[in-house]
Amino acid sequence: MAATFVSTILAQPAIASIVFAFQLGVYEDVRTAFHACSELDEFIAEQCCYVCDASFGQAFAPSAEWPSDPTTGPVRFSALALNKSRRDDRLPLHVAIYNGLLPLTKRILRCRPDFA
Length: 116
Prior knowledge:
Layout: H1 5-10, H2 13-21, H3 31-39, E1 41-44, E2 49-52, H4 56-60, E3 75-76, H5 77-80, H6 91-98, H7 102-111
Antiparallel strand pairs: 1-2, 2-3
């Protein structure tokens, strides 16, 4: 019988853990935050801000208690500590931090340690 990826790599926990350590991906429970940031906000470099759709907060973290309403006005780059000249991939992490959503912040960092 020919060796397969599953039988060779995944069946050996020591090797599988090394392979999985280098796989970037988004966990299912934080997928909504990434989707909201890619679909429900507008990046306006000239005004140095992100403008959110009215449904952004509910879509970003449906079960979270928001300390502030993310749709009340533009969020300045300086408040989020993000790149001013282009859309920043770290937006989901910084929105979670800015709004004090600690469990979500930890989960985002867990699945995307390159954002730290």
